[in-house]
Model the fold of this input.
Amino acid sequence: MGQNTLTQNTPWLPPVEQTVEPLGGRTANLTWYGYISKWSYDLVQDTGAILLDGAIDKQTRLDIMTAIEADADNRITDLHIRYVAENRLATTISLVTHFPRSPEDYKSLLNEISFLTHVLVEVNQCQGEPLKLF
Done:
């Protein structure tokens, strides 16, 4: 049986049939796969909560909701809070009310929460009858 082209041109290499991948190569690959897997897992753990608005504490969320919903018949339908800097938050609020006012009026309700630096408010008018409170 003749030699293959690679071993004819490079006599210092053994024939292809006799070469076996060294164990070191497999170990190195497994090590790198381990490093990459660990890095990926840690990255998801560190950033997942931030990307999904989960890093904001419940008290901050409750403070924002209370400030908006305590005024008139406002109801928050969508609330997103995220960090924009250390100890600085931005929020996007979508609310529904029977008595709509300007977004600036709703922003002023949040003046007590000092670490909110950027507030975006979407106001929607409720089409149903206002609830009568006893």
Observations:
- Residues 17-51 form one domain.
- Residues 43 and 130 are 47 Å apart (CA to CA).
- The chain has a mean pLDDT of 80.
- The chain is about 40% helix and 25% strand.
